[in-house]
C-alpha cells in the first residue's frame, strides 16, 4: 500500500527523542531517531549498509552512530564518517538515508517527500497542545490495524453510544450535521447533543448530573490522518466559552500497511493544576482508546484481512460521509504523487 510522501507524519512525541536511540518504523521505513548534542533531532535509516544490522543496536557517541557489528560510523546526514578496517577508505555505497524532522507542538514531524516542498506551515494546527491556557496530558498506543480504519473510527463518533459506556447517553445516538462547504484538505464531522443531560464523562469532569446542557463533538481531520476533536459542554444555548472544553488530539501514523502508531492528547481549560485529574484523564484515555476502540478496530482489520475497505462495498450510513471524504482526499493526493 502506498503512503502520501509530501505530508508531515507525527513520528514521536518530542519527549520520546532522547540520547537513547529510538527505533520506529514509519510508513514501512525503519528509522532510528536520536537527539543530537545541540538538541536537534536526527533521523536516519535503521539499517547498516554493510550487513544490514539495525543501527539502533549500536552505540551513540556524540552525534555519531557506531554500528554494533563491525563499527562503521554514521552521522545525522547518513554519511559514513569512519571505516575502521583496511586502509580506512569509505566505500561510496556506505551511507544510509536521512530524514527531515521538525519539532512543533511537542511532536517530532517527519517528511518523506521532496525536500523543497517541506514547509512547516503545512503541519495542521495543534497549538492547543502547547497553549499555556490548557493543561495537556498525552499518551501513545500501538494498533494492529491500518491507519484509515482508525481515522474512520474518529470521524464517526456515533460509535461512542455503543462502544463506550462513558459516552453513552440515555437519549440515543448524537445528532450529526453534514458539512455544508467541504474543503479539499480538511474534513469536519460535527456531532452534537443539544439540550441533554451530561454523559458519565462530563459528570466526571464536573458538569452537574441534573443539569441539561449542549454537548458538542466537532472533529477536524487533516492529511495524512491528524485529527483534533473540539469537545465540550455548556449550558443550554450558552456560548461555548462558558462551559467545559477538553479538546483531544489524535495523530495517526502508519507504521506498516496494517499497523498504526496512535498518539493522543487531552487538553483542558479547567482545573489545570489538578494532578489527580490529569492522572484520571490518562486512565480514562487508556480505558477508552486501548480497551474499547482498539479491540474493535483490530477485529475489523482481521475481518477484512488485507482488502481495501471501500473495495468490499461496505454499507454506507449518513454518518460515514466524513470518513469517506477523508479517504477520497488521501486517494487524490496519492494519485497526484504517482
Ligand atoms: S553490519 Fe554494520 S558494520 Fe557490519
Ligand atoms: Fe471511540
TrEMBL record:
<dbReference type="GO" id="GO:0046872">
    <property type="term" value="F:metal ion binding"/>
</dbReference>
<dbReference type="GO" id="GO:0051213">
    <property type="term" value="F:dioxygenase activity"/>
</dbReference>
<dbReference type="InterPro" id="IPR036922">
    <property type="entry name" value="Rieske_2Fe-2S_sf"/>
</dbReference>
<keyword id="KW-0223">Dioxygenase</keyword>
<protein>
    <submittedName>
        <fullName>Aromatic ring-hydroxylating dioxygenase subunit alpha</fullName>
    </submittedName>
</protein>
<keyword id="KW-0479">Metal-binding</keyword>
<dbReference type="InterPro" id="IPR017941">
    <property type="entry name" value="Rieske_2Fe-2S"/>
</dbReference>
<dbReference type="Pfam" id="PF19112">
    <property type="entry name" value="VanA_C"/>
</dbReference>
<feature type="domain" description="Rieske">
    <location>
        <begin position="8"/>
        <end position="110"/>
    </location>
</feature>
<keyword id="KW-0560">Oxidoreductase</keyword>
<dbReference type="GO" id="GO:0051537">
    <property type="term" value="F:2 iron, 2 sulfur cluster binding"/>
</dbReference>
<dbReference type="Pfam" id="PF00355">
    <property type="entry name" value="Rieske"/>
</dbReference>
<keyword id="KW-0001">2Fe-2S</keyword>
<keyword id="KW-0411">Iron-sulfur</keyword>
<dbReference type="InterPro" id="IPR050584">
    <property type="entry name" value="Cholesterol_7-desaturase"/>
</dbReference>
<keyword id="KW-0408">Iron</keyword>
<dbReference type="InterPro" id="IPR044043">
    <property type="entry name" value="VanA_C_cat"/>
</dbReference>
Amino acid at each position: 500500500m502506498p503512503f502520501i510522501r509530501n505530508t508531515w507524519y507525527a513520528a514521536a512525541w518530542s519527549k520520546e527523542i532522547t540520547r537513547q536511540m529510538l527505533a520506529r518504523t514509519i510508513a514501512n521505513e525503519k528509522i532510528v531517531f536520536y537527539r543530537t548534542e545541540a538538541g536537534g533531532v536526527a533521523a536516519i535509516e535503521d539499517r547498516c549498509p554493510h550487513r544490514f544490522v539495525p543501527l539502533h543496536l549500536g552505540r551513540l557517541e556524540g552525534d555519531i552512530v557506531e554500528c554494533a557489528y563491525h563499527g562503521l560510523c554514521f552521522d545525522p546526514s547518513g554519511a559514513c564518517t569512519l571505516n575502521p578496517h583496511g586502509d580506512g577508505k569509505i566505500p561510496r555505497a556506505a551511507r544510509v538515508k536521512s530524514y527531515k524532522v521538525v519539532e512543533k507542538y511537542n511532536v517530532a514531524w517527519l517528511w518523506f517527500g521532496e525536500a523543497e516542498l517541506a514547509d512547516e506551515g503545512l503541519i495542521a494546527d495543534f497549538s492547543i497542545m502547547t497553549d499555556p491556557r490548557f493543561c495537556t496530558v498525552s499518551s501513545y498506543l500501538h494498533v494492529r490495524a491500518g491507519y484509515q480504519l482508525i481515522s474512520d473510527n474518529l470521524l464517526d463518533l456515533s460509535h461512542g453510544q455503543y462502544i463506550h459506556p462513558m459516552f453513552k447517553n440515555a437519549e440515543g445516538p448524537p445528532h450529526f450535521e453534514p458539512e455544508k462547504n467541504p474543503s479539499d484538505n480538511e474534513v469536519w464531522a460535527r456531532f452534537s447533543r443539544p439540550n441533554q443531560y451530561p454523559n458519565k464523562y462530563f459528570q466526571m469532569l464536573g458538569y452537574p448530573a441534573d443539569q441539561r446542557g449542549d454537548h458538542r463533538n466537532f472533529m477536524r481531520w487533516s492529511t495524512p490522518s491528524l485529527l483534533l476533536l473540539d469537545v465540550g459542554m455548556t449550558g443550554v444555548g450558552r456560548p461555548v466559552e462558558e462551559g467545559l472544553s477538553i479538546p483531544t488530539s489524535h495523530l495517526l501514523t502508519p507504521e506498516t500497511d496494517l499497523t498504526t502508531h496512535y498518539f493522543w492528547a487531552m487538553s483542558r481549560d479547567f482545573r489545570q493544576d489538578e494532578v489527580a485529574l490529569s492522572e484520571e484523564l490518562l486512565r480514562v484515555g487508556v480505558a477508552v482508546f486501548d480497551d474499547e476502540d482498539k479491540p474493535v478496530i483490530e477485529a475489523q482489520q482481521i475481518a477484512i484481512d488485507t482488502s481495501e475497505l471501500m473495495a468490499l462495498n461496505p454499507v454506507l450510513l449518513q454518518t460515514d460521509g466524513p470518513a469517506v471524504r477523508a479517504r477520497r482526499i488521501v486517494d487524490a493526493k496519492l494519485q497526484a504523487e504517482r
